[in-house]
Amino acid sequence: MTTAREIMTGGAECIGVEDSVLLAAQKLTELGVGALPICGTDNKLKGMLTDRDIVVKVLGQGKDPANVKAGDLAQGEAVTIGADDDAAEIMRTMSVHKVRRLPVIDGHDLVGMVAQADVARHLPDLQVGDLLEALSTD
User: Fold this and answer.
1) pLDDT averaged over the chain?
2) What is the pTM of this model?
C-alpha cells in the first residue's frame, strides 16, 4: 500500500498569515512551486495560496502585493491528507475536492505536499488517468 508519506515532497514551507503576498510570490519563485501552505502564528495550516490567487485576486484587481496579507487570501479550511493515508484516499480527496496539491499532515504538523505530479510519478497510469479526468471535469 503506497502512502502519502512515500510519494510526497517533504519539507513544505509555509507563508505566514501576516506575510505579504509579495513575499509569497518571491518564495514561490525561489522554491519553484505554484502553491504554498498558509500557516498561522500557531504554526497550524490556515489555507493554501497559489500563483493564480496572486494574479487573479491581487494583481488583476489592481492591489499592491506588498500591502495584501497572505492570510487575506486563505479561503475556508484547507483540504489535507494524512501522512499515512493510502493512494486510494489521495486520489479520492484530490478528485472530490478538485485540487491538484494536498498538504500532508502528520498529527498537527505539516510534513510535505502531494502534488498531481507526485501522483503521476508513483502510481499506475490507469489511476493517474482517472485522476486527470476527475480534475478536468466540472
Assistant:
1) 87
2) 0.80
